[in-house]
Amino acid sequence: MSAATTQKPDHRPISDTAFAAISRLAREEAGLVLSPSKMTMVQSRLRVRLREVKLPDLDAYARFVCSEAGIAERRLMISALTTNVSHFYREAHHFALLRDQVLPRLIARARAGGRVRIWSAGCSSGQEPYSIAMDLLSVAPDMTHCDVLILASDIDGSILEAAKSGIYTDTQISGIPAARRKAFLIEQDAPGAYMIAPPLRQLVRFRELNLLRDWPMTGRFDVIFCRNVVIYFDGETQAALWPRFRRALQDDGWMFVGHSERIPDAAQSRFTAVGQTAYRAAPPDVSARPPAM
User: Fold this and answer.
1) Catalytic positions, please?
2) pTM across the whole model
3) Nearest to 155 by CA among 95, 90, 106, 210
4) Which residues are within 8 A (CB) of 228 and not within 5 positions of it... i.e. 6 or more apart?
5) Mind listing the pLDDT tens digit for each residue in 239-251?
6) Cβ atoms 217, 211 nearer than 8 A
7) 84 and 167 in contact (C-beta within 8 Å)?
8) I need a labelling partner for 207 at 20 to 30 A (CA). Which of 6, 49, 128, 224 fits?
């Protein structure tokens, strides 16, 4: 079947067989768990794609996206199914920990010539990494001249383009304190539109990344934010991710997860809980090292 077929879309419900195929593909491609209770959501979001590829109904779309001819469409399907909800300074207790306990040491290291890396994994439309950058530059504006970088990654390439633009509405910036709005936002000609100031944008690098695939980063991170992301994965996928995050962290690094997420068996994964949905990377297991010769 070709996606070039031009037919008027049929709004009949997706069949159980087609929904199962979409669910299986979403899990294989991105670890997304689509239970039958999400069928209405899936239908609503994929009808947008249905119009784009000009197929007659969702069953035809399922056959297409599961075929070799539909490989390129799979990325766009995952983008349509991904929930992109973000706010500036969401889960404020994490930012309090960041300001009070994490950043002073990292700033001192950067000023001494050291390297600082922070990862916003599942950054959505960019509010999280820009919030981190605001906290950093509010107390240490000289960080733009140090070896400091915030990696902001997401599986959704289209939402990353919006994040890179750095443009937000007055509603979207409501969580930013007034003093930081004045310091870090530039009002645009369009009413109610604001742009993230260049010093913040300089610190953040946006990259498309599927957490289930290879991670190309070679260095380790001092802080990882991965909040309200793994909740969409099944238990097996989550269990495989926590050790990967630990290996990506410095031995004294910090890990922040979402309000409804926990790292089970944290000690086994070499994490130590240090606050509400906040963890530190536990020291290496010295007992596992070979004896000194």
Assistant:
1) 45, 154
2) 0.84
3) 210
4) 85, 122, 258, 259, 260, 261
5) 999 999 999 999 9
6) no
7) no
8) 49
